[in-house]
Amino acid sequence: MVSVIGRGRVGKAFLVKSAYEGRIDFEITGIQNATRKEQLSHGA
Questions:
Q1: What single DSSP character describes residue 35?
Q2: For residue 32, what is the DSSP state?
Q3: Planar angle of CA 38, 10, 31, nearest 5 degrees
Q4: In the prediction, which pLDDT does 43 show?
Q5: Sign of the C-alpha dihedral computed for residues 25, 34, 43 and 12 taken in this order
Q6: What is the DSSP letter of 11?
Q7: CA atoms of 15 and 42, how far apart (whole Å)
């Protein structure tokens, strides 16, 4: 499991996807301190 936390727009997702290319089975993202409604609408 890999968890990367940091400010937005710095390349966290790109870094993980590049390092683990072809080996990622499950991916989830979220927004820190967001409401449930905001979390659910973010992924849509």
A1: -
A2: T
A3: 15
A4: 65
A5: negative
A6: S
A7: 21
Spatial separation of the C-alpha atoms in residues 26 and 9, rounded to whole Å: 21
Q: Is 3 exposed, middle or buried (0-12, 13-18, 19+ CB in 10 A)?
A: exposed
- Which of the 8 DSSP states describes residue 20? T
CA 15 centroid distance within chain: 11
Per-residue pLDDT tens digits for 1-44: 888 888 888 999 999 999 999 999 988 888 889 999 998 887 65
How far is it, in rounded angstroms, from Cα 21 to Cα 28? Answer: 16
